[in-house]
Amino acid sequence: MSEPTAKRARLASDDGAATTSGQTSAGIIRSENFWLDDGNIILQAENTQFRVHKSMLARQSTIFKDMFSIPQPTKPLDPVIEGCPVVALSDKTSDVECMLSIFYDNNNVVDLENALPIDQLSAILSMGKKYEITYLRDRALKRLRRCFPVTLKEWDDSFGDANGPSISFEPMVDTIESVISLAHMHDISSILPGAYLFYLSQASPEEILRGDKKVLSQDTREQCILGRDGLIRRIQLFVNMWGNGNKFMPPASCTNAGQCSFAKADVLEMLIISLWLRDERTMWDLSPDIPPPASMIVSALCDSCSASIKTHYNKARERIWAELPKYFALPDWEELKDFDA
């Protein structure tokens, strides 16, 4: 038997026989949106049944197509409701509902063109991957990779994305935890460095370790804290090097030596606050622009000193981005491979 055929879903038991009220004797309910009178197959997920069409499922999914191609015995051994065979799925009801909404209602329920809540993105990825619905799987991957890319240029572009966010980040910390969990669950390693960095820029150490939602494993949370410490040490080293070197705000090219030389100590202090202390709870997100309050004092300097600071800032960003995976005990960027590689 071929592997796709071997993936055939197990069938529901006879306990799911329907009653005339639309609710089964075993407490199984019919979907309000997808109990189609002319449907010829019933999918059951958790305690909900969906009456839909074999032809629709087969057209969208390689797995369903293979399943329905198996020759059936003259006398079916499978449970039947109103003449329709019942196929039991191990998926969540909400995930099946999301998949069928896309099949039947297109964007009326799940708008694939705009930002998606993480639960819908998770459903699209999970169902697309499991049932080999390639366009759903690829759409979800594209969105995740757009938000958490592998290059610094793409990361910069995401800060000013004219097309808007690909994921709805509300609530912020809960959503990013779900993204990290999704990446681990589905082996999407390439998005993890960016996702971890974004997580550190939004969650305090207390939130990370506390893990109120129990979405991430304790090992993952501890690695985030270790990564945070490593990044802080690296940033601190850069600022110390700037303060001790003569290439940072070089006096020879300064056009306002009195003001700029006096402000150098303040600039370094503001960079410390901006890059690793911030509000004393979250991390720098490697944003392309120098964050406040450092940006305010830099803008008051002469053009030469301001340009020097921005050059050093960008070189530090490039170096940290290149090193980013190692802070979270991940392979180098070029070795991070996703399941679809």
User: How many H/I helices?
Assistant: 14
Helix share, percent = 40-55%
Quaternary status of these chains?
A: single chain
For the largest beta sheet, what order do the strands appear in spatially? 1-3-2-5-4
Strand content: 5-15%
Largest sheet properties: 5 strands, mixed
Order of helices and strands: HEEEHHEEHEHHHEHHHHHHH
- Count of beta strands: 7
Q: Radius of gyration in whole Å, from Cα? A: 27 Å
Low-confidence stretches: 1-23
Distance between the termini: 26 Å
What characteristic shape results from the CA principal axes?
A: elongated
- Mean pLDDT across the residues is 86
Which structural class should the secondary elements be placed in?
alpha/beta
Quick structural summary:
This protein is of the alpha/beta class. The protein is 52% helix and 9% strand.
For this entry, give a set of tags.
341 residues, alpha/beta, five-stranded mixed sheet, two-stranded parallel sheet, 14 helices, SKP1/BTB/POZ_sf
3D structure, described in words:
By secondary structure, this protein is α/β, with parallel strands linked by helices. Helices cover 52% and strands 9% of the residues. It is built from 14 helices and 7 strands. The protein has a 5-stranded mixed sheet with strand order 1-3-2-5-4. A two-stranded parallel sheet has the order 6-7. The chain is elongated.
Q: Which helices and strands, and how do they pair?
A:
Blueprint: H1 3-6, E1 29-35, E2 41-45, E3 48-52, H2 54-60, H3 62-69, E4 80-81, E5 84-89, H4 93-105, E6 116-117, H5 118-130, H6 134-147, H7 152-159, E7 167-168, H8 172-185, H9 192-202, H10 205-210, H11 218-244, H12 257-277, H13 294-298, H14 303-327
